[in-house]
Amino acid sequence: MALDFTIIGYMAGTLTTFASLPQLIKSLKTKDMSGISPYFVMSFTTGLFLWLIYGLLRDDYPIIIFNIIFSLFIFLFK
């Protein structure tokens, strides 16, 4: 049975997408966003957008799905 390498993409996407949720939840609960740099948010958001474009151009579903999910996190918690 051959390993479907797409599963690695889904695993990586799951871990990297949800890794920042504890920080986002803590910041929301404490209402203290001072630990999050606006430059980080801008560069990270730009990177997500570029990854999404890359995933769309390659028709790579793990990249597309997880970058959409994390982009939603950013806009929901903004």
Structure write-up:
The protein is mainly alpha-helical. Helix content is 77%, strand content 0%. It contains four helices and no strands. Helix 3 runs antiparallel to helix 4 (61-76).
Q: Layout of helices and strands, plus pairs?
A:
Blueprint: H1 6-18, H2 21-30, H3 38-58, H4 61-76
Helix pairs in contact: 1-4, 3-4
- In CATH, the architecture is Up-down Bundle
- Look at the structure and give the mean pLDDT: 81
Number of domains: 1
Q: Which regions contain 5 or more consecutive residues with pLDDT less than 50?
A: none
Rg to the nearest angstrom? 14 Å
Structural class: mainly alpha
CATH topology annotation: Monooxygenase
- How far apart the termini lie comes to 44 Å
Number of strands: 0
* Strand residue content: under 5%
Q: How much helix is in the residues?
A: over 70%
User: How many separate helices?
Assistant: 4
| Molecular shape | elongated
* Sheet of most strands: none
The ordered H/E elements are: HHHH
CATH class: Mainly Alpha
TL;DR?
With 78 residues, the protein is an all-alpha fold. It has helices spanning 6-18, 21-30, 38-58, 61-76.
Task: List the keywords.
78 residues; mainly alpha; Monooxygenase; 4 helices; 0% strand
